């Protein structure tokens, strides 16, 4: 992960839908498949399903008896999407520490392997955020510190105040959402911070899930990604996948994973079959010509 000593799997397991559309039985099987394949990084957050995801993760870990040292638990704090508008982001020392302690209790563990501030808070001084991250590591509650959804300058400011303590930054990144290339990726590379790419399948759009039909139940984020440009990119991914004999999802994931500065990509597979398919990306390296063609068509 960047220039730190933290070693993570190139593909991480997301738990955003656990406790909602993902049942305990599926979650148990997903985690088993993931660990058997050599995966280590498990992404969580108290914001996922208002805590339901972490509760289910804790239950699965307890019932399966998976040794704690086999998993790199990553979580965040500072964001509550269920709070009233204007109060959803609170990265004050008080709020961050309270959420961290709550997460440790929920997951029944004494530490997180990676703990991140979930969003840039304009109302909290960056020095206070940096000091809280440093405190979490010094007290052993977290092994490493990170940030999520930060811009490049925000990462640079916080990293400077934290004395280089930040080792990871997590942000949405895919063939359809490439905004972090302008500032965040170069900043992270310069600062020695590893990038965790989230939503690299663009919420299923790049897997071709919505090529012919978009159900009304699809989330707003999906509808926001659809359009003429997305159709062109999705068609290019499908063409490349056909030529390589691979599923489109594997092609899209391999593209994101191999970008300079990206240390890991988090996938939120909803079924064991989907996860098994995506894990094949670990052994897939796209030919340079195809990578360039996808680069060009998605700019």
Automatic annotation (TrEMBL):
Which SUPFAM superfamilies does the record match to this protein?
NAD(P)-linked oxidoreductase (SSF51430)
Organism annotation:
Corynebacterium testudinoris
**Mind telling me which Pfam families this protein's record contains?**
Aldo_ket_red
Name of this chain's protein:
Putative oxidoreductase, aryl-alcohol dehydrogenase like protein
Q: What sequence ranges are listed for the domain NADP-dependent oxidoreductase?
A: 10-297
A single cellular component GO annotation: cytosol
């Amino acid at each position: 992960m960047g220039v730190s000593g933290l070693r993570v799997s190139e593909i991480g397991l997301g738990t955003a839908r656990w406790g909602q559309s993902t049942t305990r039985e599926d979650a148990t099987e997903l985690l088993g498949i993931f660990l058997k394949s050599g995966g280590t990084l498990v992404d969580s957050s108290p914001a996922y399903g208002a805590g339901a995801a972490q509760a289910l993760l804790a239950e699965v870990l307890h019932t399966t008896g998976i040794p704690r040292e086999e998993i790199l638990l990553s979580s965040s704090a500072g964001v509550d999407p269920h709070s009233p508008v204007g109060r959803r982001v609170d990265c004050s020392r008080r709020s961050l520490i309270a959420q961290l302690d709550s997460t440790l209790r929920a997951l029944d563990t004494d530490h997180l392997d990676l703990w991140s501030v979930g969003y840039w808070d304009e109302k909290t001084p960056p020095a206070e955020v940096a000091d809280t991250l440093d405190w979490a590591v010094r007290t052993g509650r977290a092994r490493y510190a990170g940030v999520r959804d930060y811009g490049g300058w925000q990462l640079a400011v916080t990293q400077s105040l934290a004395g280089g303590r930040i080792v990871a930054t997590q942000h949405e990144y895919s063939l359809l959402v490439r905004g972090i290339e302008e500032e965040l990726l170069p900043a992270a590379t310069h600062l020695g911070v590893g990038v965790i790419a989230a939503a690299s399948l663009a919420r299923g759009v790049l897997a071709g899930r919505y090529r012919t039909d978009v159900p009304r139940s699809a989330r707003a984020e999906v509808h926001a990604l659809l359009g003429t440009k997305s159709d062109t990119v999705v068609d290019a991914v499908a063409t490349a996948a056909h030529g390589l004999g691979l599923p489109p999802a594997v092609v899209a994931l391999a593209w994101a994973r191999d970008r300079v500065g990206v240390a890991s990509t988090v996938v939120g597979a909803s079924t064991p079959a989907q996860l098994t398919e995506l894990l094949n990306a670990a052994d897939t390296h796209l030919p340079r010509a195809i990578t360039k063609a996808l680069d060009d068509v998605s700019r």
